[in-house]
Amino acid sequence: MTVETAAGDTPPEPELVQLLTPEGQRVPSEHYDPLIADITGDDVRSMYRDLVLGRRVDSEAVALQRQGELGLWASLLGQEAAQVGSARALRPQDHVFPTYREHAVALCRGVDPVKLLALFRGVDQGSWDAVETHFHLYTIVIGAQTLHATGYAMGIQRDGAIGTGDPDRDAAVIAYFGDGATSQGDVNEAFIWASVTNAPVVFFCQNNQWAISEPLERQTRVPLYRRAAGFGFPGVRVDGNDVLACLAVTREALQRARDGEGPTLVEAFTYRMGAHTTTDDPTRYRLNAELEHWKLKDPIERVKAFMVRGDLADQAFFDGVEEEADELAVHLRAACRALPDPTPTSIFDHVYVEPTPDLVAQRESMTAHLDSFEEEAAR
Amino acid sequence: MTVETAAGDTPPEPELVQLLTPEGQRVPSEHYDPLIADITGDDVRSMYRDLVLGRRVDSEAVALQRQGELGLWASLLGQEAAQVGSARALRPQDHVFPTYREHAVALCRGVDPVKLLALFRGVDQGSWDAVETHFHLYTIVIGAQTLHATGYAMGIQRDGAIGTGDPDRDAAVIAYFGDGATSQGDVNEAFIWASVTNAPVVFFCQNNQWAISEPLERQTRVPLYRRAAGFGFPGVRVDGNDVLACLAVTREALQRARDGEGPTLVEAFTYRMGAHTTTDDPTRYRLNAELEHWKLKDPIERVKAFMVRGDLADQAFFDGVEEEADELAVHLRAACRALPDPTPTSIFDHVYVEPTPDLVAQRESMTAHLDSFEEEAAR
Amino acid sequence: MTDQPTGVQKLNIIKAINAGLRRSMENDAKVLVMGEDVGKLGGVFRVTDGLQKDFGEDRVIDTPLAESGIIGTAVGLALRGYRPVCEIQFDGFVFPGYDQIVSQVAKMHFRSGGRLRLPIVIRIPYGGSIGAVEHHSESPEATFAHIPGLKVVTCSNPLDAYWMIQQAIRLDDPVVFFEPKRRYYEKAEVDLDGEPDLPLESARVALPGTDATVAAYGPMVKTCLDAAAAAADDGRSLEVIDLRSLSPLDLRAVYDSVRRTGRLVMVHEAHRTLGVGAEVAARVTEQCFYSLEAPVQRVTGYDTPYPPARVEEEYLPDLDRVLDAVDRTFAY
Amino acid sequence: MTDQPTGVQKLNIIKAINAGLRRSMENDAKVLVMGEDVGKLGGVFRVTDGLQKDFGEDRVIDTPLAESGIIGTAVGLALRGYRPVCEIQFDGFVFPGYDQIVSQVAKMHFRSGGRLRLPIVIRIPYGGSIGAVEHHSESPEATFAHIPGLKVVTCSNPLDAYWMIQQAIRLDDPVVFFEPKRRYYEKAEVDLDGEPDLPLESARVALPGTDATVAAYGPMVKTCLDAAAAAADDGRSLEVIDLRSLSPLDLRAVYDSVRRTGRLVMVHEAHRTLGVGAEVAARVTEQCFYSLEAPVQRVTGYDTPYPPARVEEEYLPDLDRVLDAVDRTFAY
Ligand SMILES: Cc1ncc(C[n+]2csc(CCOP(=O)(O)OP(=O)(O)O)c2C)c(N)n1
Ligand SMILES: Cc1ncc(C[n+]2csc(CCOP(=O)(O)OP(=O)(O)O)c2C)c(N)n1
Ligand SMILES: [Mg+2]
Ligand SMILES: [Mg+2]
User: Fold this and answer.
1) Whose CA is nearest to atom 3 of ligand 2?
2) Does residue A5 form part of some domain?
3) Averaged over C73-102, what is the pLDDT?
């Protein structure tokens, strides 16, 4: 009988890859330990710092939105480890295609967080330099960026920048997306393209178990990482609240890509601790108990516990990071408020590389209209 | 280690479900034999007849296209068993959502083949009664119909017409599509919808190994039936040139659907013996040897051999079917040539249920324009 | 039976559409609501608030996150005899479903020689001025109004919202139903038990006037009424027409008006080039050639992508730009 | 180096575009061709014939069967510095890729504040009169010309085809390139080594004339030239303008002409409502209000889905309908 096993009678779920328990205990793994053998105490401290700063950017942005300084904010609360762990697995030559929630990845890639605030303030639509930071623009249309990432990876292939063995040359791409996004045609087409072309791309799905109000079971009835096998490439599920495990798993996947072995789907199993965005009210659709349960798995607390347990840091260190976060917050508040509004006529810039006669005329008519107010005011 | 097996190191392929060898030998199967235990000699003969008539409709249509009577034809040559086997698994209350190539399915559902010719002649866009025949319109936009089929199946669920155990009530839907179609977002979205809603739909993929000039490996690097597992429902690969195996496998899948057990993906492994359509020239992209190889697996020859071997039919029977096919061909030729062209103003009908004032005006202007010629001619 | 609101109530557009949906679902068990977050959450704007609680998960369906899937499965449901009302969460997210809408939904009735009908309503909250990020403020109505087989309508106030959604659901043609999200919270009295005083596909004179005609739809109707009030203060009487139906486009009232005023200003948020205003200008010039004192003036969003929120008010037509255009028509 | 054709050759549009693609690929190693069946088969119309053989599978990519994937991966390739030329097999199959085109391709340059460029060309064989089945004869250009950030052009003859495809590929903006498939096999002499005599975004006076102006593009240019020949026999001199660029729309030549003739007939295959003719009529009326002796007459496909092939000639504008419209302008 060749009927494949259905959802009901699947083999037992493989373990979630976990290298740090929620209590901060290091779980040994024959397979993954070598992948992070080089990680020093300094590295752990620096990751901890990224986690804390990432969270602080987020909480500060939420506060700024409440104060009317931002139009909207999509909080990453709870997803810091998935983002920092995967981002720290990147090499400088790798490229990132994010959604709208990858603030901690941006931070790790050297994107000025003020630029993230600018976008959500409504000042621009992404003013960081994607070419320099290798961190591409936020994509709001669900799933669209997974195809861009795959195409970019096809470009890397054409440039001969995979499989050479040169660690500074071989490059890979990582595409971020959510659990909800897995239902979009685009994401599945990206899987097909990547598989068929063997493109060097890692599909990094942050399964935070909610797509606004819709729980995971509205998108799938089997674990998402399994989707990959059906398309002919590996899928792996990792504890998304475990920064070390996310680092190890993503490193392996990126290296496969750089080595010319093709795509991998990483499902980072995590939880959206906050609202979908600042306009959302999750109490309408989910139970507080769920949130409380996940609080116990906090991605930052477990690293802290691990560090304390292993004497990797003392209170002075933690205080130092906290202080740095405070300073960052002060800076963000000030910088956000100081962001200048765009000039009205700037909307005519960059529609095309060269302005068209129509747009020149439309710009002139706007200018004349605006000037007429000034004239009136001057009278 | 939880990394799933990649394309390279998969477990050995499960056997293709086959109940009839190319030589017409019956292959026993513990699992599938009970599913066709009721099939009598009459049934086999009647299936043979469907296969032959299906092929004759096809070859006649190709000839009519050559003679300029049709604008185009998409030949089913080689896929008769996949179509007849699956169609014969349907109950009257089941519904079919075809592509543009399911001529033999249409025949089995009682659609007048002249209506198929009418479509390809350019007389209309599908004049059969989808409500009465349960055979929906041909869909040319690749993959679009898989979502319609899934939605239709969701309607059946809402009507309480699954899982009642009443064999005349419980209904299912079958969606036909090709190997190329599996790359479309729509088809993958249909898989997701069907899985999440547990809709009573069978996805019947005729993998004829070509999408126009593109071979299977441009669409996937693993067998297509495996796609299903990643979406959480069973996938099965059947010898698409074996009418009995197609019947058995589709019966099982449809029954699962009717019983409320959800979707199945059936990959009927077959071969497009002809050109993609009458405008295509396959010698530009594929080797004749491949064709010759597949000729040995002809779906009709093996049933004939099986029947002869098992004394299920004598020469008179075969001659009778041939004669019937000849008559059908004569009828088709005459009926096709006799198809009246649509009247020009008929294009304004059925844009909306009630004509809009704009369309009434446009129709009047067309009429006036056409009348002006008659006036001129009359002068 | 659910708690059907009744009597005369002061409702905003959200509540009015909610009441219209509720009434449609009460009256016809075949009416379904489907889309992202339409269930427990009641939609991101709460338009479907409470419907799942009252009508169950089979009739108010939280769908997977995929617009082509929403429309494509709605086609199947409609073929089975259901009347799906699909919610697209925001204007900019309709495009993944565009293929199903233009190649399948729009054509099924025609292709089948009239045998098949697709009574599907596709609700799309649209337009700007809500301070949103990208893809949340667009006005894509022209890309639908160009497609034969679709009807395209839009409401501008709670009363129309209440009736038009019910009329759209009752229609056997597919309807793209645009909702002016910047006006969602504006209130008016709605007699829930009355009868609609206009067919779905009719324009409405929102304000009679004598000096110039202003045509608009959806979110811009209020802007034009405000402009008319300001013009009245200056002694100029504007007639404001709410088009309501963009396909078919009902311009009888506009022709009547232009024949009297000789001047037309057409206002919409969508891009100027090939926006609905282009068609209105072309038709009005055809029909009222000798009446026009000035060419039709279009006041529209500019031909740029929808800009960041902090500059959207300059992008969007407003009272001043409407009045400027009226002035321009008098300069001829 | 491949066999680059050279000198003056008699080519049809297919061969002209093929030569233009070939030259672009020779000149710039970043130029890629991608789409369904573009490789060994050379495309269903053979426009890419021989390119894969000469430039290899890395530069001429047979893609999986998914239009959103074609456009979406082209975006990524362009961000990496490539210049993808995507083939959409037929007009009616562009819509699954519409979301990527309008929400991603059209906006990336703007969103990035000008930092990112997407030099992507999307080739679409379009239009009817080829006796095809559904979805193979559509004219969806208006749904692209409405979208800021896209350029939309179309050629009507082999010479333009040869140069315009090269100009489109050289441009750093995304271009939707419509090819008139019913004219694919019409031949003309093309000097492969010359220089284009017009910028990509300029209209062209195809035939000078004095009595009335006829504007068209793509497949309808020849129809209008035929109409002009017939009109000349009747002693009426028509000026025919080939618009070539639909976005930006270059109407300078049309304004000039209308100011002389006072009469304009606008012809296209696309549906009438919100077809490009609507915008042309609106703008010409704005710009030439006092010159127009008659309202702009539109000769277009009707507002019905594209009909079955056996009746398509009645659906499509033809010489007689163009001349009728010219007559109508003289009736004012
Ligand atoms: C094509 C499209 N449809 C709808 C939306 C509206 N929307 C924004 S976020 C979201 C949910 C996304 O869920 P998921 O992919 O799980 O990502 P998460 O927000 O949880 O990070 C939806 C429906 C959108 N942005 N794009
Ligand atoms: C959306 C879309 N894109 C492109 C086409 C053109 N086209 C028609 S058939 C075909 C190949 C289909 O291959 P497959 O799905 O394997 O079905 P088969 O023709 O082999 O039966 C293509 C590309 C189309 N019909 N629809
Ligand atoms: Mg999520
Ligand atoms: Mg195939």
Assistant:
1) D93
2) no
3) 98
Q: Are residues B354 and B209 in the same domain?
A: no
Cβ < 5 A residues, ion ligand 4: B 178-179, 208, 211
Are A115 and A237 in the same domain?
yes
Model confidence over A250-294: pLDDT tens digits? 999 999 999 999 999 999 999 999 999 999 999 999 999 999 999
Identify the band that residue C3 occupies on the pLDDT scale cut at 50, 70 and 90: low
Q: Is residue A3 part of a domain?
A: no
State whether A136 and A237 are in the same domain. Answer: yes
The rounded average pLDDT for each run of 10 residues, N- to C-terminus, in chain D (332 residues) is 80 98 98 98 98 98 98 98 98 98 98 98 98 98 98 98 98 98 98 95 98 98 98 97 98 98 98 98 98 98 98 98 98 94
B330 in reach of chain D (CB within 8 A): no
Condensed to tens digits (0 to 9), the pLDDT of residues A203-218 reads 999 999 999 999 999 9
CB contact, 8 Å: C75 with chain B? yes
Under the banding of pLDDT at 50, 70 and 90, the label for residue B378 is confident
- C-alpha B217 to ligand 4 mean position (Å): 11
Q: Do A55 and A96 reside in the same domain of the chain?
A: yes
Decide: B142 in ligand 2 pocket, CB within 6 A: yes
Task: State chain D's maximal CA–CA distance in angstroms.
Answer: 60
Domains and CATH numbers, chain D: 9-191 (3.40.50.970), 204-330 (3.40.50.920)
How many residue pairs bridge chain C and chain D with CB atoms within 8 Å of each other? 123
Residue D275, SS3 per DSSP: coil
**B215/B175 same-domain check:** yes
Give the range of the structural domain holding residue A371, as residue numbers without chain letter. Answer: 344-378
pLDDT at residue number A373: 86
Based on the fold, state whether residues A229 and A363 are members of the same structural domain.
no
Domain count for chain A: 2
Nearest-ligand number for the alpha carbon of B209: 4
A214: nearest CB among C36, C136, C312 = C36
Q: Is the CB of D279 under 6 A from ligand 2?
A: no
Give the chains touching A; criterion: ≥3 Cβ pairs < 8 Å: B, C, D
pLDDT at B374: 82
Q: Would residue A28 count as lying in a domain?
A: no
| Residue of D69, D71, D80 with shortest CB distance to A155 | D80
Q: Mean pLDDT across the stretch A1-19?
A: 55
Residues near ligand 1 with C-beta < 6 Å? A 101, 140-142, 178-181, 208, 210-212, 272, 276; C 36, 65, 67, 89, 93, 96
- Cβ separation of C249 and B358 shorter than 8 Å? yes
Ligand nearest to the CA of D65: 2
